[in-house]
Amino acid sequence: MDDKDAATICQPSAGVHIVMPGYYSPESMGLLDPATSDGRVIFFLPWQKMTIAGTTDTPTDITHHPIPSEEDINFILNEVRNYLSHDVEVRRGDVLAAWSGIRPLVTDPKSANTQSISRNHVVDISESGLITIAGGKWTTYRSMAEDTINAAIKAHNLKAGPSRTVGLFLQGGKDWSPTLYIRLVQDYGLESEVAQHLASTYGDKAFEVAKMASVTGKRWPIVGVRLVSEFPYIEAEVKYGIKEYACTAVDMISRRTRLAFLNVQAAEEALPRIVELMGRELNWNDAKKQEELETAKKFLYFEMGYKSRSEQLTDHSEITLLPSDVDRYKKRFHKFDTDQKGFITTVDVQRVLESINIQMDENTLHEILNEVDLNKNGQVELDEFLQLMSAIQKGRVSGSRLAILLKTAEENLERRVPIPVDRSCGGL
Fold this sequence. Notes:
The chain has about 425 residues and is of the alpha+beta class. It folds into 3 domains: about 10-120, D-Amino Acid Oxidase, Chain A, domain 2; about 180-310, Helicase, Ruva Protein, domain 3; about 320-415, Orthogonal Bundle (Recoverin, domain 1), CATH 1.10.238.10. Helix content is about 40%, strand content about 10%. It has helices at about 70-80, 140-155, 180-190, 190-200, 205-210, 235-245, 250-255, 260, 265-280, 285-305, 305-310, 325-335, 345-355, 360-370, 380-395, 400-415, and strands spanning about 10-20, 30-35, 40-45, 50-55, 60, 95-105, 120-125, 130-135, 345, 380. Strands 1, 2, 3, 4, 5 and 6 form a 6-stranded antiparallel β-sheet that branches. A hairpin with an 8-residue loop joins strand 2 (about 30-35) and strand 3. Helix 4 packs across helix 5. The relative contact order is 0.08. Mean pLDDT is about 85; it is low at about 415-428.
């Protein structure tokens, strides 16, 4: 700023991270590999009961909406395969979320080696006394701030005592203890998993969140309605997040909670309820709710890897099943397509589920079928089902709710014992 001829010292670099199921890594052990196949560094760590792996390091242009590429995702997966036993299949379909972040790599203007790029931050004091802080990352913000203030004190002879940042608690940290979650369970009737999440996330502010928690209507837990069943995030966190200036649905799924980073599909499922809760608190009209919903879905689709994930199954996907597998899956399909129409709808699935005493609401069924309805005509055709099963076999798709649902229903139908005539209230 004070020297128009100063050389550029920052170079933007994109790094991609992926999240996979927790069973890929031990709970308390991580791995850092500084010598991958192309020389980039890869880490492989347990995180939020999942596994996080990354990162790539690619020069990039600056954009507000970086998108993870399929090439980078596959690079990470290929490296991960080197760390696991050969009998563990690392599947593309197990990538639950993927994102790209841009970080500033920086050259120290005072360094003799002008080609040397640092992944740490650099503090520079110009001849005029201007202090520049460049590089760094969110996780080192305190160190960056301390170094910058220390440089200012030294350069301008400012009067100040030693830095206190090391001893300053984050909000909620003052009265936190490892057993704080037990009080949340005992005093409010929260599930243990939810209480542990609230305590570790909010510290002693967890009690404020617990006070906002809705009654579940169950014997246990008493309060704490989850946003999605497999994660400990509860509806009260949406209300509390708004108190701390969360303004958008994207704020809620990616910054106030980590749903978008842990599982994009779960985040999408939670969105309608999140938007409804935020709309109620912030007085959104229907148009605003729809806008928030669409913006958040676009964020998940492009920036959090949903697009890349969904492209693993398209209407151009090959069917590479063995003839015996094709026959087996056709039989499964026709247990639902009893009219031999060549497709199934929510009505067909609902009929079979009711026959084996499984209840599922229509909206959920629509969501499940829509994941596989490649041509979006409101029904799943036989070829679409076979494409799905082929993609699952190849590891490109995993966790398909329709595949699991149909398999479970088929097994229940086969186990069902015929009712004897003398107990069926009829027969001659």
